[in-house]
Task: structure prediction
Amino acid sequence: MSPVSKFGQTHSLRRLPVQERSAARVRRMLDAAADLIEEVGYDRLSTTAIAQRADVAIGSVYQFFGDKRSLAEALSQRYIDLYFERLAARFDAEPPADWRAGVEAAIAEYVHMYRTAPGFRVLHLADAIDPGRADAVTTGGDVIAEQILAGLAQRFGIGGDDELGKTVTVAVETGQALVRLAFRRDPEGCAASIAEANGVVCDYLARRLP
Result:
């Protein structure tokens, strides 16, 4: 695997690192951004603090990122990539019997990210991204919905059209909001709220899926 592929097909880097040394430096910056977002929040995040935490020159930050927004965008994309890597591994190890089981697994992995990935619950997968920028990922939910549509076709033979795409997008955004609520109620995730998220999303998708 090349260093480039670690940053996903959609990225906000000014330029992609070609050498492993540069890729490692970018990974340190993203790690630092994640830890600082967890500690102080997005609003108080600064490129200076990121450079200090990552032990790189401030010029290195601007070499790859235009500002803290593009850093948050790249971090969100990294987490989206990690989320689907984990979900694919879970499906390969224990293929879901039907799409409802797939939804349960998808929400479980999202909950796992909330519990373990620094800054994840603050970012909410690309909430910090400016939707007005034409070259930016609009929301993490849009990217997740697109991947789920592909997964429905590949794993369950369920083809999609524009209406199904809208349905899946609403289901993803609803699931994200309910998981967020679960972690507002309990720092470890309210079990009843997570169960409710599964039920609500499945009931909504059942309107369009067999």
Summary: The CA atoms of residues 141 and 176 lie 8 Å apart.
